[in-house]
Every structure is written in C-alpha cells, then in structure tokens.
Amino acid sequence: MKKYNVCIVGAGAVGKEMVRLLRKHDFPAASIVILARSAREEIIDGESYPVRETTAEAFDGMDFAFFAGTEGAKGASQTWGWVAVEKGCVVIDNGDDFRMDDRVPLVIPEINPEALKNHKGLIANPNCSTIIALMALGPLHREFGIKHIVAATYQAVSGSGAGAIRELEAQAKAWANGEPMKAEAYPHPIAFNVLAQIGGATDGHPSEELKMARETHKILDNHSIRVSCTCVRVPVFNAHSEALHVSFEKPVDVARAKQTIEAAEGVELVDDLDNARFPMPLEANGKENVLVGRIRKDQGFDNGLSLFVAGDNLWKGAALNAIQIAEKMIELELV
Question: Of the listed 89, 128, 229, 231, which one is catalytic?
Fold first, then answer.
C-alpha cells in the first residue's frame, strides 16, 4: 500500500486527536509531523512527535496537511492553506475560513463524498454541530426530503479548545470550595450554567447558528431547506448534543425512520425509553459513531419527526471527519 507523508498544523485539542486517530485507523502514513508556531517535541500517549515551525518549506514533500484550527491557530489556513496546495499537498481544513468558498468542497464522507471529485487541493471540514446533525439528517433527507429544520444544540466546552476544558474543571473545583469562579474563556462562568451565544453576532444571529444553515445547504446541495437554530454552550467537557425537529416533503413513518438510521453508516440507534436509553454526551465521548434516538412524530409539523443526537465533537465533529475525508480520497483515487 502506498504510504503518505502527513503533517498536522496545530497541536491543541483537535491536533492531538488527529494524531491519535491516524494511529487508531492505521492510516498509511510514512511520517507524521506536527507544525506549530515554534519547534519542539510533543508527547502524545507516550510517543514523541517532532513539532516544526510552520513555514512554506515545512510543506515540502508532504502529501496531506491537516489544519487542526487549534493552539490559537484560527486563520492558519488563510496564511498557509493554499501555500501547502502549491507545494503539492492535499489540505483538509478543520477551520471555517474556506467552508463557503466555491472552490472548496465541504464534505462529510458518509453524506456527500461526490463533492470530492474535481477538488482543487483544499477540502473543508464542516462545523462540528453541522456534522453531528447531518449524520442523522442526511440519511433521512435521502429517504423523505427535508423541508425545514429546527435545531437546538447543547455544545461541550471542548469545542472552544483545551483552555475551556481546563476552565470548566477549575470553576467546578472553585464552586465546590466556595471560591469565586473565574471566567476567561467565556464572558460568564460556564460551570453550572448555559450560555446562549456561540460566536460573534450578526443582526442578532450568533455565527454558530448561521453556519448550521449555510453549511447544511451546501452539503445537501439544497438551498430551499429552511433552518432555524439556537446554539448553546453547556457545562459538558466533550461531545455535543442536539434536539432536532424536522419537517419532510414525504409522509414519514417512525419505524421507517429508525430502519433508515440503523442502515446508515457512521450512526448508532440508541432509542429505548422504557430502559432510559437515549443519546448522551457521556456515552458519545470517545465514540466514532453519532448516537441517534428519541425518534418520534413531531406534532408541530406535518410530515414531521423529532429526534435527539449526540456525537464526539473532537472526533466526528473535527479530527475523525478530516481523517475520513483523506481515507475516502485514497479509496476513490483522488490523491
């Protein structure tokens, strides 16, 4: 099997998970190098990896460049993405700089792998909450045709990076000790609280909510779908959850919807209220599949379904999806 030289730009929460998942998946990597703002060694699961300074020359000889979008590296792909492409790399970008660029496919491999054809060297990962929602909604869209989505997300602090994870832990300890909770990662304490804004606001719409609509349209190649979304940060370390209420063009049947989910790749049906079985972030953490459950008729829509999903935002919502894009490109002989 052909081997590929791989680099990861960013050594934060997502970058480390990319390294772990490359190893877990036995990705055909001849070498794995981490690029960051300064050179050093990075220890991940007891193994040492060289960290090189990110320069144009660092991409020489690389086949894949994964931009992790962490370690303060937001916007790194704006600086280095097309430079890496010119060096012969396939760039898979976890950030949001190029998601809506007409030159750049926005891909969930299980949902729209055909978008990889005729790529120009740079492929974008969708936003974590979009990926987790569409892993469930994509198969249902193929079966019934989506008209309208109403989503409420419950997003873990790991989506903000390693600093937010440490802050939630520190605030919980401070609360337990009767001490003030210091807030730095967010404008308010996140421990024992929820924050109904993720991202900067445009005309009253936080950016995370706008991403859900725009990215859904591009991935499903259907701009007629109406998307209403409220994104909320919750005091969970890892794995996002979402309540989804969906209307469809065709009559829907709960039993058929469950069969559709069970047959779909990358999702797991967890739906047994009699035994208190439903998707939970604690259960989704560290899983590659997105958990889907609470599937029922939605009384607010004609041809409507309600469901609840949970998925590991650092894995399927970020690092795993990027690696699966590379695996799909190898499978389709697109690299």
Answer: 128
pLDDT score, position 75? 74
Check residue 74 and give its pLDDT.
57
pLDDT in tens, 118-167: 999 999 999 999 999 999 999 999 999 999 999 999 999 999 988 999 99
Domains and CATH numbers, the chain: 4-126+318-331 (3.40.50.720), 130-313 (3.30.360.10)
* The pLDDT value given to residue 321: 98
Among the options 119, 141, 240, 245, which is catalytic? Answer: 240
**What string of H, E and C letters represents the secondary structure of the chain?**
CCCEEEEEECCCHHHHHHHHHHHHCCCCEEEEEEEECCCEEEEECCEEEEEEECCHHHHCCCCEEEECCCCCCCCHHHHHHHHHHHCCCEEEECCCCCCCCCCCCECCCCCCHHHHCCCCCEEECCCHHHHHHHHHHHHHHHHHCEEEEEEEEEECHHHHCHHHHHHHHHHHHHHHCCCCCCCCCCCCCCCCCCECCCCCEECCEEHHHHHHHHHHHHHHCCCCCEEEEEEEECCCCCCEEEEEEEEECCCCCHHHHHHHHHHCCCEEECCEHHHCECCCHHHHCCCCCEEEEEEEECCCCCCEEEEEEEECCCHHHHHHHHHHHHHHHHHCCCC
Which residues of the chain fall below pLDDT 50?
A: 70-73
Asked if 231 is an active-site residue, the reply is no
Instruction: Identify whether 141 is a catalytic site residue.
Output: no
* Whole-number pLDDT of residue 169: 98
* Per-residue pLDDT, 141: 98
